[in-house]
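To the wet lab folks,

You asked to see what we're planning to order before we commit. Fair enough. Below is the target structure as tokens, and below that is the sequence we designed to fit it. If anything looks off to you, flag it before the synthesis order goes out.
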């Protein structure tokens, strides 16, 4: 009698443990990947895009360069990028606080260099200086525009829900950008979460449509940043194209 009771109690406890495990696993499946702890995204995508931005800066005319000699800013950017890659060569994953500050410093340097080039180009166009040929002007404007898309993609990527390292840890419950997969999780794989290329797409569409498309900004800072990008893109495109058309005439 005693043994039967003990066996029944053991079976009940075992069944209860199995039920608890099933409930825990079901709960994990209900939580989307972008809200739980996951692995960091591959490093190579953001590295390749940053190298593209650095290469584009080397093609700018000397009058639009912030720091001389012309290779000074690109070398600084490459040194900062090398530090990031050395610390996390394969994936963008949490390491130390200084690593995040290093990434922010790199984005600031690229932003400063391209912002200076954009301001100088706009000033030249307004004053009717430094643009005597249409093709070089369009190429210069295109370089600044493309770099601007990369710069804002980096800012979106770095600040959404605390940045890529915070997103890996699932620290922030509320998103700053609402992607389609977040609204309709049934159309995406269960392990989907935004990566750098998603933010690059967001930046490109915002720069071409001058407004949100299928990715909606939710926080105030994301709305202001998208508004700033649209303004810069609009001014650059309008002035460059207008000046080029005037030269061709």
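Sequence we intend to order:
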């Amino acid at each position: 009698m005693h043994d039967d009771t003990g066996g029944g109690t053991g079976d009940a406890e075992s069944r209860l443990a199995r039920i608890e495990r099933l409930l825990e696993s079901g709960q994990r499946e209900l939580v989307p990947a972008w809200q739980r702890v996951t692995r960091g995204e591959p490093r190579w995508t953001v590295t390749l895009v940053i190298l593209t931005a650095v290469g584009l800066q080397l093609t700018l005319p000397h009058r639009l360069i912030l720091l001389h000699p012309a290779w000074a800013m690109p070398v600084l950017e490459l040194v900062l990028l090398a530090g990031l890659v050395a610390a996390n060569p394969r994936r963008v994953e949490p390491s130390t606080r200084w690593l995040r500050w290093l990434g922010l410093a790199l984005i600031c340097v690229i932003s400063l260099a391209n912002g200076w080039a954009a301001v100088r180009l706009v000033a030249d166009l307004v004053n009717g200086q430094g643009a005597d040929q249409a093709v070089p002007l369009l190429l210069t404007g295109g370089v600044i525009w493309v770099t601007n898309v990369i710069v804002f993609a980096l800012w979106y990527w770095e600040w959404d829900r605390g940045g890529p390292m915070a997103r890996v840890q699932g620290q922030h419950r509320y998103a700053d950008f609402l992607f389609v997969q977040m609204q309709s999780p049934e159309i995406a794989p269960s392990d989907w979460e935004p990566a750098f290329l998603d933010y690059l797409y967001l930046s490109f569409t915002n720069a071409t449509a001058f407004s949100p498309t299928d990715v909606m900004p939710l926080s105030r800072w994301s709305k202001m940043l998208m508004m700033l990008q649209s303004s810069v893109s609009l001014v650059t495109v309008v002035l460059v194209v207008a000046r080029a058309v005037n030269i061709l005439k």
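Structural context that might help your review: The first helix runs from residue 2 to 30. The two ends are 105 Å apart (CA to CA).

Thanks,
Computational group
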